[in-house]
Amino acid sequence: MARLFGTDGIRGKTNQDPITPEKALEIGRSIVTCCHRKGLCPRIILGRDTRESGKMLEYGFLAGALSQGGEVYRVGEIPTPAVAYFTRAEGGGAGMVISASHNPYEDNGFKFFGSAGYKFSRAEEEEMEALISSTHNRSEGPDSGRAKRVEDAAERYAGFLAELLPAGNRFKGIGLVIDCANGATYKVAPLLFDRVGSGFEILFGEPDGKNINHNCGSQHPGPLRARVLESGASAGFAFDGDGDRLVAVDERGTVLTGDQLLAIFAKMLKDTGALKENRVVCTVMSNMGLRRALEQEGIEQVITGVGDRNVMETMVARKANLGGEGSGHIIFHDVHTTGDGLLSALQLLKAMVHFQRPLSELASWVTLFPQVIRNVPVRGKPELSTVPEIAGAVQAVESKLGERGRVLVRYSGTEPVCRIMVEGEDAADVETYAEEIAETVRRELS
């Protein structure tokens, strides 16, 4: 049986297995059963993003969870990290988000949090998979559970984030443009930035069920960049559909990577004596320029696998309080159990105030190596090392780059795609080498 879980929960095309109401029902049964087995309260925090398929899947999940005697707190359209927060705050046994993050509206998925607000471990996912596929996961009792709607979830989560900052209008006079991607931040973001005292303008804050991530948000920062330049704003912030990542645009219209943000945050935390163990956790996809920037500050860089769960698990093991990915997933473990784009935006404002410099100057601390990523659709995912032509193409490029660059070829955990990343000092060479490998992958696997 194919594994249900990818790198970030379960994801796929709506109304195609496993993103169906029937599967949602089985997931509802299974997550309550997991809570019972662990002796946890069968209270489940349930949220979703703004996709039109979200309600359909929510109702399926509710039927399954209630049939097992679950108690479901429905927090509605809200960012994924808010579900992690409410799972802890409300004493939940688990939390689930119906979302496909930055994917187009035709997709959807399920993300899971344990009672402490952390994403499910691999072992917890395996337990869920076994239950979902079991024909014996049924309650035979006459009693059903109950559902409760949390009406003030957006206001409460905005309050939680705002309280992480010192009192007063710390950011007065800083003008912002905020792109909500027609997604899950559209309610919380205006409430939050109004509380912290910055002037702001909202873009793409009118979801209609189909426009989530459509030519907007973290994957498409062009409109945000244009508006920042037109309005003379100090910065622009773009979130993805479920609000767990941040892409920033400086006052000159330059789009910053997550690696640049990590360097800024690391320097701020070190400067204030708050960088635990003097280390930052990054993934194998992090730009070589970040490594150099951290070395210049005497900060240790710890490398882990792709995915924010891997980052968090390594942070816990290495006692770090800052980690993240180049995609804009940033984790501040002192204050949250998962990445949060809104929290990252607040921290970036703090850095601008702390250093009293415009965002473009802060971003200049990292000189990024030219990096090219090719995403090649594949019909299957054989072990790459077992395909001689692909292994040979990778080895040939690595030999050409030597110590002046690197190659990373891997499959996506959420899509039928092979990702090819080539990084080096010369932009033209990097483009050429990436296409050489991509063409080989297309020929062998597409």
Structure, explained:
The protein has 14 helices and 18 strands. It has 446 residues and is an alpha/beta fold. Helix 1 packs across helix 2 (54-67).
- Cα separation of the termini: 23 Å
CATH H-level superfamily of the largest domain: Alpha-D-Glucose-1,6-Bisphosphate, subunit A, domain 3
Instruction: Give the number of domains.
Output: 4
The CATH architecture designation of the largest domain is 3-Layer(aba) Sandwich
Level of helix content?
25-40%
Radius of gyration: 22 Å
Task: Give a concise summary.
With 446 residues, the protein is an alpha/beta fold. Helices cover 38% and strands 21% of the residues.
Write the layout of secondary structure elements.
Blueprint: E1 10-13, H1 21-38, E2 43-48, H2 54-67, E3 71-77, H3 80-89, E4 94-98, E5 107-114, H4 122-132, E6 146-149, H5 153-162, E7 175-179, H6 188-195, E8 199-203, H7 222-231, E9 235-239, E10 246-250, E11 255-256, H8 258-271, E12 279-283, H9 288-296, E13 300-304, H10 308-318, E14 322-324, E15 330-332, H11 341-355, H12 359-363, E16 371-377, H13 388-401, E17 405-411, E18 417-424, H14 427-445
Parallel strand pairs: 2-3, 2-4, 3-6, 7-8, 7-9, 12-13
Antiparallel strand pairs: 1-5, 4-5, 9-10, 10-11, 14-15, 16-18, 17-18
Features:
single chain; 446 residues; alpha/beta; Alpha-D-Glucose-1,6-Bisphosphate, Chain A, domain 3; 4 domains; six-stranded mixed sheet; five-stranded mixed sheet; 18 strands; 38% helix
